[in-house]
């Protein structure tokens, strides 16, 4: 592409034409056409009165989706990891103790961020693929008396949903610990009630059950959590993610802090409008119904789920890899033959599970029939002991 004079001849490069995939992995999920259309609308300034109105609407829609009345509810400018870091780095001060779980990849990321914030990390143990036991959390709280307790509501690496959330938060508050919840794979797809369950801080990502491109990520804080943020003795190490400064932009003042990702805010607004139109409880029910059909199909085919029914996560289905099959080869074949994305395992479950998402706009009957059909075909072609026909039949019956 470089000419002899060092200039670039773009006429020799092709237009950007990514393949049209069906996204059934751990995220991103398929984006709703209305969200894509919203992203093509004209830009305005990030302090334009019309954009301020959109900011207000996004905050109110986020409160509805989180099931909270928290004033401090915003989309952080960045991916879900930015919302995660904003939550942890603002609430955890140098010298604080944070209790984190060991039962998945993203509990480990909580620990890493808490250490970078200057906190002392202690752990509550549970095997990968199992939820935290309330008794173990209570014992760890009594032993370590932490300032902050973090847990993952929907662990993307294991396909496990944390039950008994209210028991965990009550135990933490008995020890005067603030509670931070990772809701990246649950917000908008799995039952989540921030206020009723007494969660102090919850963060999420837009690209999973909200079916929105990454770039503006949900975060909500209770008054108690924000009081701690605003009364810190030291500034957070990140200026960009300092919630005491972001409050000036997203709060009543609307004072300049940074240039918001305007198009991404348009996108999350439209994604949240879709949530409200469907109804949050109806949306939870749809995810469970469609994912149940997927689960019925893979089990009828002869595969096993990684998580027992009591804490199965509808939005992220962890399916055990059959003997004699290479997971990477299966994922590659699904991409090459079917333009279909699923994913392999992470961390301790690398090479042991497939991760099949059922999230947002991807959680549709035609998609689960497609993924069961394609997965069965590829596995059978690789010599796995599966019955693809039985899987598809069971999926269809469950959908009926």
From TrEMBL:
This is Alanine--glyoxylate aminotransferase family protein. Its cofactor is pyridoxal 5'-phosphate. One of its GO terms (molecular function) is alanine-glyoxylate transaminase activity. Belongs to the class-V pyridoxal-phosphate-dependent aminotransferase family. One of its GO terms (biological process) is glycine biosynthetic process, by transamination of glyoxylate. Residues 45-345 form the Aminotransferase class V domain. InterPro entries: Aminotrans_V_dom, PyrdxlP-dep_Trfase, PyrdxlP-dep_Trfase_major, PyrdxlP-dep_Trfase_small, SP_NH2Trfase/AEP_transaminase. Keywords: Aminotransferase, Pyridoxal phosphate, Pyruvate, Transferase. Pfam families: Aminotran_5. Residues 1-29 are annotated as: Disordered.
């Amino acid at each position: 592409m470089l000419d002899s004079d060092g200039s670039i001849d773009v006429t020799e490069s092709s237009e950007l034409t990514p393949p049209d995939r069906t996204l059934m992995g751990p995220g991103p999920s398929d984006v709703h056409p209305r969200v894509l259309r919203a992203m093509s609308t004209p830009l305005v300034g990030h302090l334009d009165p019309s954009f301020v109105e959109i900011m207000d609407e996004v905050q109110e829609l986020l409160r509805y989706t989180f099931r909270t009345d928290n004033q401090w509810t915003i989309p952080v400018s960045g991916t879900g990891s930015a919302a995660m870091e904003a939550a942890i780095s603002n609430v955890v001060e140098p010298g604080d103790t944070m209790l984190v779980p060991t039962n998945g990849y993203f509990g480990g990321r909580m620990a890493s961020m808490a250490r970078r914030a200057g906190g002392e990390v202690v752990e509550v143990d549970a095997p990968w693929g199992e939820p935290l036991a309330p008794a173990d959390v209570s014992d760890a709280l009594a032993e370590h008396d932490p300032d902050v307790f973090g847990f993952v509501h929907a662990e993307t690496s294991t396909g496990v949903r944390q039950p008994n959330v209210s028991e965990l938060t009550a135990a933490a508050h008995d020890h005067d610990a603030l509670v931070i919840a990772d809701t990246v794979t649950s917000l908008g797809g799995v039952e989540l009630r921030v206020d009723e369950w007494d969660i102090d801080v919850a963060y999420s990502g837009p690209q999973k059950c909200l079916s929105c491109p990454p770039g503006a990520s949900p975060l909500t804080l209770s008054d108690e959590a924000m009081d701690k943020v605003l009364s810190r003795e030291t500034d957070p190490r990140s200026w960009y993610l300092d919630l005491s400064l972001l409050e000036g932009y997203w709060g009543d003042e609307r004072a300049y802090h940074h240039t918001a990702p305007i198009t991404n805010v348009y996108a999350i607004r439209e994604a949240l409008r879709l949530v409200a139109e469907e109804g949050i409880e109806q949306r939870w029910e749809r995810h469970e119904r469609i994912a149940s059909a997927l689960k019925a199909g893979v089990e009828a085919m002869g595969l096993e789920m990684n998580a027992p029914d009591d804490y199965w996560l509808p939005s992220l289905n962890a399916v055990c890899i059959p003997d004699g099959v290479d997971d990477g080869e299966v994922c590659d074949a699904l991409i090459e033959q079917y333009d279909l994305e699923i994913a392999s395992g992470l961390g301790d479950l690398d090479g042991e599970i497939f991760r099949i998402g059922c999230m947002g706009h991807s959680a549709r009957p035609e998609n689960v029939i497609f993924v069961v059909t394609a997965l069965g075909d590829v596995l059978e072609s690789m010599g796995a002991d599966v019955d693809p026909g039985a899987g598809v039949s069971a999926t269809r019956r469950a959908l009926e």
